[in-house]
Amino acid sequence: MRLRVATALAGTLLGGLALFSAAALAATGTYKSGPLTATFSASGTRPNCKQLWPVTITARYNGRPTNATAYYQFLYRGQVVSTVQVFGGTKKNPHNHLYHFYSKVYDNTFGPFGYLSVGYKIDVRAVVQVGRYKAYPGLYVTVTSTRGCPAK
Q1: Would 137 be classed as within a structural domain?
Q2: pLDDT tens-digit series, residues 7-44
Q3: How far is CA 109 from the centre of its chain?
Q4: Among 103, 134, 145, 151, which residue is least crowded by beta carbons within 10 Å?
């Protein structure tokens, strides 16, 4: 009987630890501007220089899903060094226009960062706009080196 209880308790602890570690790997930044709340989520904050880094952007207005626009900004030491459109240059946004979405967008074409960004702490953020309200959710990212990084 004691063995069953101990086994069940150990299984519960390991399951909880696995959920905690999976949650620790995900990173989310939230920004609130008046009634607009926007989030920027990614799988972590240490992508390597040649991998795609899928991100998710959500927008809520007064706690409800809403229509919004978004684009990305890259900041180094507080200065904007680059601006990129969501799905820029892909079939979903071939002309690099401002991207319109409803409630949530999952961008699996984000990245790679390239070799020149390795080792620097970069603020990657989305600029989400609904009407006159703008939110700037983002994450601080440190790009890691790996073999075969493109010089982007």
Answers
A1: yes
A2: 444 444 444 434 333 444 689 999 999 999 999 999 99
A3: 12
A4: 151
